[in-house]
């Protein structure tokens, strides 16, 4: 496990809160009661902060709104559509609602819509096998074919495990194909880090994100300030993106 992955997992609200509570218990047993109390307050505050829908709408919204969603017909034409592997909140339509498979919108759905709208004649899917089995690229290619995209127009990049590698390996493939102008498809939350990574490779992608997920639902009973376990669990995706942006910037990858 890399240091970045370690800190990413540690900062997940539940993980950090539990860690702080365990440390607080140890300090209390060692009679460091004031410090223990501070850690308890910190643990509960961190969990409460990320359990509030208002927090996700603010922090996640800042990322999702960097590259606004547009219908396929309003996206400019290009030579190819590049689709990145990965997932965000299970592809559910709205961050604050239960997962509904029939309403979920994944990245390949967006790419298929763009292809059907004639935005580009070629689709590139990027992603390695995370568990040693079938690559994400192969799975996305199969999904695209089910959505009506011909197999012969799909190219697979199967080496990348990270967003950085998505950009590095896909850049090579695009240059080999003589492709200069392409549409970049990923989740709205992931788009800022993805765009920065591809631009770092000397490319000039056009953002074509999936619809934003961190939006106020239609539910009249929705509350901005009522703590919610679903929001707390999903907040890890926001934290991951901010940490990823920080690390990529620090390492000169974005």
Description of the molecule:
It is a single chain. By secondary structure, the chain is of the alpha/beta class. The protein folds into 2 domains: about 5-60 and about 230-250, no CATH class; about 70-205, 3-Layer(aba) Sandwich (Rossmann fold), CATH 3.40.50. Helices cover about 50% and strands about 5% of the residues. It contains 9 helices and 5 strands, in the order H-H-H-H-E-H-E-H-E-H-E-H-E-H. The chain has helices at about 5-10, 15-30, 35-50, 55-65, 105-115, 135-145, 165-175, 190-200, 230-250, and strands at about 80-85, 125, 155, 180-185, 205. Strand 1 (about 80-85), helix 5 and strand 2 form a beta-alpha-beta unit. It is globular, with a radius of gyration of 20 Å. The model has no long low-confidence stretch (mean pLDDT about 90).
């Amino acid at each position: 496990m890399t240091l970045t992955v370690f800190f990413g997992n540690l900062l997940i609200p539940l993980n950090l809160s539990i860690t702080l509570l365990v440390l607080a218990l140890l300090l209390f047993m060692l009679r460091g009661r004031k410090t223990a109390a501070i850690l308890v307050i910190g643990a509960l505050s961190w969990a409460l902060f990320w359990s509030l829908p208002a927090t996700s709408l603010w922090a996640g919204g800042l990322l999702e709104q960097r590259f606004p969603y547009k219908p396929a017909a309003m996206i400019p034409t290009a030579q190819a559509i590049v689709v990145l592997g990965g997932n965000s909140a299970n592809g559910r339509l709205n961050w604050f609602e239960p997962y509904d498979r029939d309403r979920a919108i994944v990245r390949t759905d967006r790419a298929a819509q763009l292809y059907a709208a004639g935005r580009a004649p070629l689709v590139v899917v990027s992603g390695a096998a995370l568990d040693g089995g079938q690559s994400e690229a192969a799975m996305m290619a199969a999904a695209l074919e089910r959505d009506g995209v011909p197999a012969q127009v799909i190219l697979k990049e199967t080496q990348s495990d990270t967003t950085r590698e998505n950009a590095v390996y896909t850049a090579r493939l695009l240059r080999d194909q003589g492709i200069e102008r392409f549409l970049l498809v990923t989740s709205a939350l992931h788009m800022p880090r993805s765009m920065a990574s591809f631009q770092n490779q000397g490319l000039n992608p056009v953002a074509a994100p999936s619809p934003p997920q961190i939006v106020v639902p239609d539910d009249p009973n929705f509350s901005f300030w009522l703590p919610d376990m679903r929001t707390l669990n999903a907040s890890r995706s926001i934290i991951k993106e901010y940490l990823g942006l920080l690390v990529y910037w620090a390492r000169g990858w974005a």
